[in-house]
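Try this one yourself first.
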């Protein structure tokens, strides 16, 4: 690997892959959460109405696959973070930033644990008995995803891979 690209380029590419997966997951979950929380009464209308008027059940597979892929790529990148980025953050006494990233690890793992229930509720989308549970787990995953995205962005801005 050392002859093809530099170490910084290697990790930057993986960070970019993680970012693309995370943005796809964020978009899918946000569309689905809006469709569940504020269902559109009409399909035509302004941009907000069209944003909410998506077929929510169609996003379940994409959300599950993207969450797992984002988690796996993030776990791979984590080795670099733990050794080369976390230590300087702690040395600069930015403990809250490091603590939020530690919390991010737990939130992403909890989201991974919620995926089987999420999958079950969306694969039984025709059953009205699961409507509230489906709505709840979707909104929880959407909030988790936004939290993970923002914390990851802030940490990268604090001390990115090229530092």
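Now uncover the answer:
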């Amino acid at each position: 690997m050392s002859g093809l690209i530099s170490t910084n380029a290697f990790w930057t590419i993986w960070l970019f892959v993680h970012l693309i997966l995370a943005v796809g997951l964020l978009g899918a979950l946000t569309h689905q959460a809006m469709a569940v929380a504020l269902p559109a009464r009409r399909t035509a209308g302004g941009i907000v109405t069209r944003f909410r008027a998506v077929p929510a059940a169609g996003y379940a597979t994409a959300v599950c696959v993207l969450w797992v892929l984002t988690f796996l790529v993030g776990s791979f990148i984590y080795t670099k973070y733990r050794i080369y980025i976390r230590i300087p953050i702690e040395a600069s006494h930015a403990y809250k930033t490091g603590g939020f990233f530690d919390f991010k690890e737990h939130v992403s793992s909890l989201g991974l644990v919620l995926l089987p229930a999420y999958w079950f509720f969306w694969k039984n989308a025709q059953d009205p008995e699961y409507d509230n549970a489906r709505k709840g787990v979707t909104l929880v995953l959407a909030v988790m995803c936004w939290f993970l995205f923002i914390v990851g962005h802030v940490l990268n801005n604090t001390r990115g891979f090229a530092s």
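Discussion: The chain has a mean pLDDT of 85. The chain has one domain: 7-158.
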